[in-house]
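Changelog entry: the SCP domain-containing protein record was regenerated in this release. Current contents:
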Amino acid sequence: MLVFVGLLLAVVTVVSWFATRPDDDVAEEPTTSTAPVVPPVSADPRAPWAADEEPGSYAQRLLAGTNVARVDEGLPALVWSECAAEQGLARATALVGADELTHAPMDDVMAACAVSVAAENLSRGAAPAQDVVDAWLTSPGHRANLLDPDLVSVGIACAREADGSLTCSQVFLG
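Regenerated structure tokens:
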């Protein structure tokens, strides 16, 4: 299955954001993060977790899994937004070392990316990217974000926790 990735920003009128799973593990101190990169046309979301994987590479695999899920539901693949990825990196980095993952209002994201609709999925852990996408799909709020036809672009960024796991923010724009 070929996933088309491009750049697109659109303006729509609704804002949605949902809380993450409460059972996510937490690390003590942050280490490093990397800037988001434009994902390649294909990346394997089922590839095994590797502690030395670059956060940007893992974000690419999350994008690939997300787009497979959307296409499987008859929706168009999301296109890459560098603005959303930059906002996601700031949000993921701010959550490194936090006791739990909590969503911040999306107002700053919407202003920075010049849209009126934004949503976010968060994750923390050390698992294959497809496992994260599957977990989002079993959570009603995360699933709603991932499969919302009004959300047309996405940026994903991850920051490394002290234990080597990754905290990721998937920012959707409509």
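The domain at 55-173 is CATH 3.40.33.10 (Pathogenesis-related Protein p14a).
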